Amino acid sequence: MIKIAVASENEKVTEHFGHCVNFNIFEALNNQIVKSESIPNPGHKPGFLPNFLNDRGVNVVISGGMGGGAVDIFNEKGIEVIVGASGNAKAAAEAYLQGTLKSTGSVCHEHQHHDECGE
């Protein structure tokens, strides 16, 4: 079983991980999604969301963009990070399972450069 969290605005992948509206959590078995749930973003505090998702057993996180600090924490916990995704959250999770969703590596380094994060 693999658990994928997609940082979303309702059903769409969000541009900025920390400011997403909700996380769509997909559970997959043999590369097929067998369960999905949406949980509201509990709040954006540095270092909080990676631990929150880790506690929920998430293996993979998909987002449009993400700050380097969050990426580092996910990496420390062995959670795979895919950034540069867009469109429908479930479609992004399915593309990941099929091996067709690749991370662009677009990490937001500086919060001053808002336009680079698509905010």
TrEMBL record:
According to the entry, every stretch annotated as the Dinitrogenase iron-molybdenum cofactor biosynthesis domain falls at 10-97
User: Gene3D superfamilies per the record?
Assistant: Dinitrogenase iron-molybdenum cofactor biosynthesis domain
Q: Which domain of life is it from?
A: Bacteria
Entry-linked Pfam families: Nitro_FeMo-Co
InterPro entries recorded: Di-Nase_FeMo-co_biosynth (IPR003731), DiNase_FeMo-co_biosyn_sf (IPR036105), MTH1175_dom (IPR033913)
Q: Which PANTHER family does this entry report, sorted A to Z? A: DINITROGENASE IRON-MOLYBDENUM COFACTOR PROTEIN-RELATED, IRON-MOLYBDENUM PROTEIN
Its name, as the record gives it, is: NifB/NifX family molybdenum-iron cluster-binding protein
Q: Which organism is it from?
A: Lacrimispora sp. BS-2
